Automatic annotation (TrEMBL):
Binding annotation for ATP: 10, 58, 86, 92, 103, 113
Enzyme class, spelled out: transferase
Xref: Gene3D superfamilies: Nucleoside diphosphate kinase-like domain (3.30.70.141)
Organism name: Arachidicoccus ginsenosidivorans
Gene Ontology terms describing biological process: CTP biosynthetic process; GTP biosynthetic process; UTP biosynthetic process
Protein name: Nucleoside diphosphate kinase
Stored InterPro entries: NDK-like_dom, NDK-like_dom_sf, Nucleoside_diP_kinase
Annotated Pfam families: NDK (PF00334)
Length: 138
């Protein structure tokens, strides 16, 4: 079990001014930010990031959305980070997310759902390496 996960605050949440509140909740939940950047993906970059979802019906919409505005990408550390972070953010669909979770509080829909959280240790490593070089993390 790895102690690292990867997150993005998605364009819906940055546009609505929720970045500070979301980072505050992540830190208060005990995660350490090991690397972080505020950036904007091109369509090509968003397409490459979500390549695993290429065959899913929502892929085109997801790529358009994720390249539509600014995002915050971060590598986070905590014991059992992947599972702990997915508990903190809640279900993909905010209508099904538990009370108090980040998606319940800040997400508008199953697509525009405020935050990303890696779903496995393997993907956390791949996703962190997509955004950050060794020099950009500690
Ligand atoms: N998504 C979507 N429509 C769907 C399911 C997912 O637009 O019906 C988007 C949503 O932004 C989600 C992302 O695709 O966060 C990745 O989907 P996944 O099933 O991996 O959910 P997650 O791991 O993010 O909870």
């Amino acid at each position: 079990m790895s102690n690292t996960t990867f997150t993005m605050i998605k364009p819906d949440a940055t546009a609505k001014g929720h970045t500070g509140a979301i980072l505050d909740q992540i830190i208060k939940a005990g995660f350490t930010i090991k690397a972080m950047k505020w950036t904007k993906l091109t369509k090509e970059q968003a397409g490459a990031f979500y390549e695993v979802h290429k065959e899913r019906p929502f892929y085109g919409e997801l790529v358009d959305f994720m390249s539509s505005g600014q995002i915050v990408a971060a590598i986070l550390e905590k014991e059992d980070a992947v599972a702990a972070f997915r508990t903190l953010i809640g279900a993909t669909n905010p209508a099904e997310a538990a009370e108090g979770t980040i998606r319940k509080q800040f997400a508008a829909s199953i697509g525009e759902n405020a935050v990303h959280g890696s779903d496995s240790d393997e993907n956390a490593a791949i996703e962190g390496n997509f955004f950050f070089s060794k020099l950009e993390r500690f």
